[in-house]
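R.M. (postdoc): so does anyone remember the format we settled on? I'll just put the structure tokens first.
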């Protein structure tokens, strides 16, 4: 069951990526605005969940761990945006594959989680396949030591820390009772981004001219993101956080599939580059992914 939800989460998150791309390209909405709106939405949804699930008494230490997990889930965007500002997206996105590596190391040190040799081999294969799926063109420039590279290392480390912290908290607190506080943490992260430099002014100026349908699209986007996030957290509550993180590497596969479908039947919504070289690289990456899955299951 944990494996199923681990793969379902990136499948849903892939939809979120497509909506993000639609909002960024078709409506010129900045990533900062989407992040801040997500923080507001997370706070409201957290309050609703708190009413529905009821108050669950937790100690201050556990509360801080859950809130910090949510906070890091949003704050990782700051170094990520900085990396995108300094470098091309094709050189930045593949570096997110450092995240599962950090998770494996930290879960081993702090959670005492360990996998079999075969599972570690499978993890390495899936990380490699996820990298190949994410990159548009293989180039040594991606791993060149530059400012954007280190910003992406920091961003990946923050995401990994959020996942490990959540796993630590869900070991002692029921799954549904962790979610309201995690949402409050995300809201704090959104507030931090809102107050960072000139983001407050940019957010207020940009949202002032939004049409009603833009807010509808953004709300749908956040609902999809929440479902994806909660699905991933539920998987973490069932199995190793390292395995869940590794299987999130299937996300580029789902984004590719959605992109091809939209490009063929709904090109006005999204148009992906589809040629023989790209498709061959992606196809080989997909084969590698399922090969890695075989090692994990064996």
């Amino acid at each position: 069951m944990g494996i199923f939800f681990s793969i379902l989460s990136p499948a849903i998150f892939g939809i979120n990526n497509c909506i993000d791309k639609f909002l960024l390209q078709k409506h010129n909405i900045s990533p900062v605005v989407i992040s801040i709106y997500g923080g507001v939405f997370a706070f409201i949804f957290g309050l609703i969940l708190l009413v529905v699930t009821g108050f669950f008494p937790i100690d201050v230490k556990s509360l801080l761990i859950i809130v910090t997990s949510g906070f890091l889930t949003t704050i990782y965007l700051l170094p990520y945006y900085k990396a995108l500002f300094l470098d091309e997206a094709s050189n930045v996105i593949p570096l997110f594959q450092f995240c599962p590596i950090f998770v494996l190391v930290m879960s081993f040190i702090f959670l005492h989680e360990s996998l079999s040799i075969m599972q570690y081999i499978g993890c390495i294969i899936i990380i490699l396949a996820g990298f190949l799926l994410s990159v548009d063109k293989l180039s040594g420039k991606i791993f060149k030591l530059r400012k954007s590279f280190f910003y992406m290392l920091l961003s990946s480390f923050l995401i990994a820390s959020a996942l490990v912290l959540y796993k630590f908290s869900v070991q002692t607190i029921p799954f549904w009772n962790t979610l309201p506080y995690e949402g409050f943490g995300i809201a704090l992260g959104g507030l931090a981004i809102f107050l960072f430099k000139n983001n407050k002014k940019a957010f207020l100026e940009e949202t002032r001219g939004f049409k009603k349908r833009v807010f509808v699209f953004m709300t749908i986007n956040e609902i999809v993101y929440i479902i994806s996030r909660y699905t991933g957290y539920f998987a973490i509550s069932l199995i190793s956080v390292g395995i869940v993180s590794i299987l999130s590497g299937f996300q580029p596969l789902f984004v590719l599939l959605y992109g091809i479908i939209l490009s063929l039947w709904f090109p006005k919504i999204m148009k992906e580059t589809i040629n023989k070289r790209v498709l061959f690289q992606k196809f080989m990456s997909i084969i590698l992914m399922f090969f890695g899955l075989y090692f994990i299951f064996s």
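R.M.: ...and that's the designed sequence above, right after the tokens. Also worth knowing: The two ends are 16 Å apart (CA to CA). Residues 2-297 form one domain.
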